[in-house]
Each structure stands twice: as structure tokens, then as C-alpha cells.
Automatic annotation (TrEMBL), chain A:
It holds the Pfam family ABC_tran. One of its GO terms (molecular function) is ATP hydrolysis activity. InterPro entries: AAA+_ATPase (IPR003593), ABC_ATPase_HisP-typ (IPR030679), ABC_transporter-like_ATP-bd (IPR003439), ABC_transporter-like_CS (IPR017871), MetN_ABC_transporter-like (IPR050086), P-loop_NTPase (IPR027417). This is L-arginine ABC transporter ATP-binding protein. The keyword Chaperone does not apply. Keywords: ATP-binding, Nucleotide-binding, Transport. It comes from the Bacteria. Residues 2-236 form the ABC transporter domain.
UniProtKB/TrEMBL annotation, chain B:
InterPro entries: AA_ABC_transptr_permease_3TM, ArtM/GltK/GlnP/TcyL/YhdX-like, MetI-like, MetI-like_sf. This is L-arginine ABC transporter membrane protein. One of its GO terms (cellular component) is ATP-binding cassette (ABC) transporter complex. Gene3D superfamilies: MetI-like (1.10.3720.10). CDD domains: TM_PBP2. It comes from Edaphobacillus lindanitolerans.
Length: 240, 221
């Protein structure tokens, strides 16, 4: 599904990713953890080319994103992304947020797009909010709408960048529950998160990044109970 | 104090006509300014380097020199250089249009760049093409930043329009001078058009406030 080899990303002189290699199988849920500033967001953003990789190869569903003539827009249509700060379109209703891209990009008719949107809203538990504007929603509701908006493009892969970090504590669960459901439905997911409970419970694999290097990866049960590297040990001691 | 407005009465219709003359040229100049300004703003934001450099230089020159100088240059230099005898009206809309384009391009650029960068990223992540993103996602949000500042520009332009009296264009201001000369009393006609300018600006201000309130209301919905 995802194949990453020797991924390097520099901002000017600052090398933020120093040669990351990994792959993700279809249906796999991967949690990316690590200290702040270690390059987790940059790694995720390289996967849908919101950041242009400096070197290395990224292939998603067999499509080489790092080749010169890659169709970036076509690739992005298959990759949903959920941001820490939601980034809903504030001038559109919830329904508008969910139907705009499918109509504009996938050529859905209005009726088809709205029917799909209603289905997705039911799935994230927000059927009654179709006509609401984002500014009237709570953080947890906004993030669930953002997830539904990404799903409306029928992606094969979902990227999450700290989806619960901007939320009040009491709203974290409602968002994680939606993500758990999504994982159960077989969606391939890469989730940057500080929610160790979520990583342990839902992820099939954990990637530990530190200073732009993929230090350690493994199954969550072994990683959390017996990390192999001292840096992972130190990090886990701080957060657990 | 010996103010005497009675002598002025026969000239009032002549001066009132100046309202239309002034508004007509302000409107045309604004239209040119808005079209050209939008183009320049797009150059500045996402144009290739030569166009971006041009837009920046253009803005710098037109904001960095007096408007009356630009007006005089166009009015006097065009006939001297090309032999084409440019009318006061054309000079006026050219100078004011080109000048306001510089200011409007800055207003639009700032308005667009004030839209949260996350909006662009969200649109890109969904695979929305650039033009559609600009038209349906970014510009509607930028509009809320742009409109109040644009209203200010309209007001400034309306007041500054009096400058065209210096090249003999028969706007409100010029008419006051003509009337003043023919009745040997300057003060009353000047006061009279002053009042008209003030009323025009007040009307524009009220319209601007109304628009702003509308925009605020639509934020809360
Ligand atoms: N657009 C950018 N320009 C310059 N430096 C950046 C940019 N984005 C991120 N960085 C730097 O890259 C490093 C990694 O950032 P990031 O990927 O956001 O880390 P994380 O998500 O793990 O906290 C940080 O030092 C950050 O300052
Ligand atoms: Mg981050």
C-alpha cells in the first residue's frame, strides 16, 4: 500500500527527515509516535506531498509520487488527511464541506454527493448537523466532520496528524471512537498521535521517530512493554 | 461675516451636475483599478517571477509618487510624446485607475494571504484543483477581509477625485471654481460642494458599515 525508501526532507539547511524507510500493508493501522519536533508531521505530509520530499522514494498503491511526472492530484484523491486543527471550510455548511470535493473532483451529482454525505454523517454520529456551520460545532464535532469530509472522497488510505491534540479532554473519546470504527472497517491508516492508549489498542504497528530518524518499529504489545532502544525507553518513561 | 448664498442660486443645478460627473469618473476609475488590481494581486501571490517583479515594481511606483504628478504626467506627457490629444476625462480615469490598481492590488493580496494556510492544505489534500480552490474556498473567505478595506479605497478615491479639477475636468470641484470666478465670490460655492463631498462620503461610509455588519453576522451563523 505504502512503500517509503530513503525519505529525506530538508528545510533549507535543516534536515528534518534523515532517510526514513518503511512500508504499510493494506488494512494496516500504523501509529507514529515520538517527541515534538522529531519530524512526525513532516513525514505524514510527505506522504501526500503537502511537503515535497528532498530525496527518496514514496510509492502509494503502486503510484510513484516522487517521480517527475507523478499526477499529484490523482494521488491525493486516494489519500484522506485529517489535521490537528480540522481546517473545515468555514463558509460552507457541514453538508457543503462534505459534498464540495466529491462534486468538484469526482464528478458526483448533487443528489449522489448529498446521499453519501448523510451516510457518512450518520457514521460519525452527526446526522443532525448537516445544515450547521463549522463555527457552531464543538472541537470534537468539527474533527468528526473533518474525518467524514476526508472519507467522502472514498480514499484508500487515511492520514491523521494528531487528530485529538487540539481537543478538550472530554471530546477526545468521541473522535478516537470514530477512528477505531474506521480501523475495524479495514481502512489503511497512518496516525501521528500522543494517545498511547489508542496506539496500543488499535495500531497494528508503532513507528518511533526521533530527530528525523526511524529509531524503532514493532508491534504495540512488544514495543510498549519491551522497547529495544534506550531512546524509545526514555520517551515512553516520559509519556506513560 | 457676509455670507450670501442667494447669488449662487442660479448656479446650483450646474454644480449639482458635477456630482454625476465626479461619480462617473470615480466609478470608471474604480472599475479599472479593481480589474487591474486583481490581476496584479494574482501576479504577486502566484505569478511567475517576471510578472511578480513587475507587479511589485508597479505598486511601488504608483504608491511612491504623488497622484497629482501621475495625473499631470498623463495629461501633458501623452500629447507631447505621442501627439495624441488626450481629453481630461481619459487622463483622469487613466491616472486614477492606474493609481487605485496599485492600492487595490495590495488590499486583495493582503486579504488573500490573511486566509488561514490550513484552508489551502485542506483543499490540496482533497485533490481540489487550484482554480476551483481559489474561486470557491479561498476568495470567498478573502472577500470578508477585502471588502471593508475596499470601501475605504472608494471613499479615498471620491475625495481625491477633486484633483482632476487641476486639468480642467468639469467635476464638482472645478464647477465650484468656475461659479466662484463668475460671481466673484469663492467662499459660498466651495462651501456648497464641500457639503456635497461630505454627504457623498457619509453615504459611502454608511453603506460600508452595513456591509461590514452583514459580513460579521454571517461569521456567527
Ligand atoms: N515549513 C517548515 N519550514 C522550516 N522548518 C520546518 C517546517 N516544518 C517543520 N519544520 C521543522 O521541522 C522539524 C520537525 O517538525 P515536525 O515534522 O512538525 O515535527 P513533529 O510533528 O514531530 O512535532 C521541526 O524542527 C520544525 O521546526
Ligand atoms: Mg506535528
Amino acid at each position: 500500500m505504502i512503500y517509503v525508501d530513503g525519505l529525506v526532507k530538508s528545510f533549507g539547511n535543516l534536515e528534518v527527515l534523515k532517510g526514513i524507510s518503511t512500508d504499510v500493508k493494506p488494512g494496516e493501522v500504523v501509529a507514529v509516535i515520538g517527541p515534538s519536533g522529531s519530524g512526525k508531521s513532516t513525514f505524514l505530509r510527505c506522504l501526500n506531498l503537502l511537503e515535497q520530499p528532498t530525496r527518496g522514494t514514496i510509492r502509494i498503491s503502486g503510484r510513484d509520487l516522487t517521480s517527475k511526472n507523478a499526477d499529484i492530484r490523482a494521488a491525493r484523491q486516494e489519500i484522506g488527511m485529517v489535521f490537528q486543527h480540522f481546517h473545515l471550510f468555514p463558509h460552507l455548511t457541514v453538508l457543503g464541506n462534505l459534498t464540495y470535493a466529491p462534486m468538484k473532483v469526482k464528478g458526483f451529482g448533487k443528489a449522489q454527493a448529498e446521499e453519501q454525505a448523510q451516510k457518512l454523517l450518520r457514521r460519525v454520529g452527526l446526522s443532525d448537523k448537516a445544515g450547521a456551520y463549522p463555527s457552531s460545532l464543538s472541537g470534537g464535532q468539527k474533527q468528526r466532520v473533518a474525518i467524514a469530509r476526508a472519507l467522502a472522497m472514498e480514499p484508500r488510505l487515511m492520514l491523521f496528524d494528531e487528530p485529538t491534540s487540539a481537543l478538550d479532554p472530554e471530546m477526545v473519546k468521541e473522535v478516537l471512537d470514530v477512528m477505531k470504527d474506521l480501523a475495524k472497517s479495514g481502512m489503511t491508516m497512518v496516525v501521528v498521535t500522543h494517545e498511547m492508549g489508542f496506539a496500543r489498542e488499535v495500531a497494528d504497528r508503532v513507528l518511533f521517530l526521533d530527530q528525523g530518524v526511524l529509531i524503532e518499529e514493532g508491534r504495540p504489545d512488544t514495543f510498549f512493554s519491551a522497547p529495544k532502544t534506550s531512546r524509545a525507553k526514555d520517551f515512553l518513561e516520559k509519556v506513560l | 461675516m457676509n455670507l450670501d448664498f442667494s447669488q449662487m442660486t442660479p448656479y446650483i443645478p450646474y454644480m449639482l451636475e458635477g456630482i454625476w460627473v465626479t461619480l462617473k469618473f470615480v466609478f470608471v476609475a474604480l472599475l479599472i483599478g479593481a480589474l487591474l488590481g486583481t490581476l496584479l494581486a494574482l501576479f504577486k501571490i502566484s505569478g511567475p517571477v517576471p510578472l511578480r517583479a513587475f507587479a511589485i515594481a508597479y505598486t511601488s511606483v504608483f504608491r511612491g509618487t504623488p497622484l497629482i504628478l501621475q495625473l499631470m504626467l498623463i495629461y501633458f506627457a501623452v500629447p507631447q510624446l505621442t501627439g495624441y490629444d488626450i481629453t481630461p476625462f481619459l487622463s483622469a480615469i487613466a491616472a486614477f485607475g492606474l493609481n487605485s490598481a496599485a492600492y487595490i492590488s495590495e488590499i486583495i493580496r493582503a486579504g488573500i494571504q490573511a486566509v488561514d494556510k490550513g484552508q489551502v492544505e485542506a483543499a490540496q489534500a482533497l485533490g481540489i484543483p487550484y482554480r476551483a480552490m481559489m474561486k470557491d474556498i479561498i476568495l470567498p473567505q478573502a472577500f470578508k477581509n477585502i471588502l471593508p478595506a475596499l470601501m475605504n479605497e472608494v471613499i479615498t478615491l471620491t475625495k481625491e477625485s477633486a484633483l482632476v479639477s487641476t486639468i480642467g475636468y468639469l467635476d464638482l470641484m472645478r464647477r465650484a471654481q468656475v461659479v466662484g470666478a463668475s460671481m466673484y465670490r469663492q467662499f459660498e460655492p466651495l462651501l456648497f460642494v464641500g457639503l456635497i463631498y461630505w454627504i457623498l462620503v457619509m453615504i459611502l461610509t454608511l453603506i460600508g458599515r452595513r456591509i461590514e455588519r452583514r459580513l460579521k453576522a454571517s461569521d456567527i451563523r
